[in-house]
User: Fold this.
Amino acid sequence: QVQLEESGGGSVQAGGSLRLSCAASTRSTYFMAWFRQAPGKEREAVTGIYTANGYTYYADSVKGRFTISQDNAKNTVYLQMKSLKPEDTAMYYCAARREPSYSSWYEAGAFPYWGQGTQVTVSS
Assistant:
């Protein structure tokens, strides 16, 4: 089992920044990702990172604005969000898997472990 705890959400104005954190209960994760879900919309992948080598993926909608990083000593993954837009408003979830998967990085079904989520609200 892996417990994930997100923090760092909040309310900001458009153009502002926020940093989310996701602390894992174990360092034996293989891949970690951030997803988000806005009201009335499907959950979508934002970014992901292979914890062993730091290789990252980003959704097109956040490239150049969001950065995922990790601190392996703290078993923590971060999501630095800059130039935030109102359309970034959503509940942000941290997800993890401990093994490789044939699924694409952005497929939520490939992640057995999820945090409770942290709300990000961007006002115009």
